[in-house]
Specification:
This protein is mainly alpha-helical. 65% of the residues lie in helices and 4% in strands. It has eleven helices and four strands. The longest helix has 42 residues. It is elongated. The chain starts with a strand and ends with a helix. The N terminus is likely disordered.
Length: 336
């Protein structure tokens, strides 16, 4: 048996070992309560398996991985990109839990009842370790899905906030649509798991009464899973995805980018009318302001008042004195 070790709770562990004991128990005379419980478990197991095997989930997961891979180099420190990586980590851990395989093994343990003859009252049900293992994985998966939905909301808000800056518009729109679809799809998976827990817990009570064989010692499975999940579980089903498009004019930006044909025609007609009105107004203003019949007055340039000392006259005097000196020197040289 798997005794609890110090560390995280068993529902929070990455891998839970399979029980090495007997996987089925034969009940000779099952009661009506057990029959109803088995029927409910089989029905909910089929619904959960269909939800987990959905091709839409696989397609959205592939889109998520492609967006992260193609924009890793240029958006490595981008806040919406980092929040989207947290969504991917939750999906990887959910896949590593192998919840789908455990639920499928549980549902296959009931299939041996179909081969038995009608007159026999014996019934084959899964043993207590098998039921406890599936219940523990359901608890862990529900907690993980709450974290996944919270990461989707965080990514949505950060992407819308960045969309208001009008940067990487196409990428941000892809991310907004992606996390919105993931939120809706995995919200449905969470509801299916919660619906499976109640009849499976009833089956555990019956199996432990018929053949007690506890697998997780020291851990008590909660009778009410909603109480175990806490208050965020109720908030998720009360509220919808946060409507943050009203902030920072994102709605106007999206309306400009994605207009219908009627809206685009109407907007083009309005812009043409606005341009024609502006042209007419400019023509009227030009005609009113400019009058070609009036002479244009030249602006007078104020000259600075000349000082009393005249530089030109001083230069002329110096030149005249130099000429006189040169003539005198020539005369004296001729006399000699």
């Amino acid at each position: 048996m798997a005794a609890l070790l110090p560390g995280p709770q068993p529902w929070n562990r990455v891998r839970l070992p399979k029980a090495g004991s007997r996987s089925t128990v034969i009940v000779q005379d099952p009661g009506a309560a057990l029959d109803l419980c088995i029927a409910a478990v089989i029905k909910e197991c089929c619904l959960v398996t269909l939800s987990l095997k959905s091709q839409i989930l696989d397609a959205e997961t592939d889109v998520l991985c492609a967006v992260l891979y193609s924009n890793h180099n240029r958006m490595g420190r981008h806040k919406p990109h980092l929040a989207l990586k947290q969504v991917e980590q939750c999906l990887k851990r959910l896949k590593n839990m192998n919840l789908e395989g455990s639920i499928q093994d549980l549902s296959e343990s009931f299939s041996s009842n179909e081969n038995q003859p009608v007159n026999t009252k014996a019934c084959v049900i899964p043993s207590q370790p098998v039921v406890e293992l599936v219940l523990m994985k359901i608890l862990g998966a529900c907690k993980l899905l709450l974290r996944l939905l919270d990461c989707c909301c965080k990514t949505f808000l950060l992407t819308v906030k960045h969309l208001g800056l009008q940067e990487f518009i196409i990428l941000n729109l892809v991310m907004v649509g992606l996390v919105s679809r993931l939120w809706v799809l995995y919200k449905d998976v969470l509801k299916r798991l919660v619906s499976l827990y109640e009849p499976l817990f009833g089956l555990l009570q019956e199996v432990s009464r018929i053949q007690p064989l506890p697998y997780f010692k020291g851990f008590t499975f909660p009778s009410d899973i909603a109480e175990f999940l806490g208050e965020p579980y109720f908030e998720i089903f009360k509220k919808k995805m946060p409507t943050a498009f009203a902030a920072k004019g994102v709605t106007k930006l999206l309306n400009k980018l994605f207009l219908t044909k009627e809206q685009s025609q109407r907007s083009s007609e309005e812009t043409l009318l606005r341009i024609s009105k502006k042209a007419k107004q400019m023509k009227i203003n030009i005609q009113n302001n400019v009058d070609l019949g009036q002479p244009v007055k030249n602006k007078k340039i104020l000259k600075e008042k000349s000082s009393e000392f005249d530089v030109r006259a001083f230069c002329k005097q110096l030149k005249h004195r130099a000429i006189q000196k040169a003539s005198k020197s020539r005369r004296s040289a001729d006399k000699k």
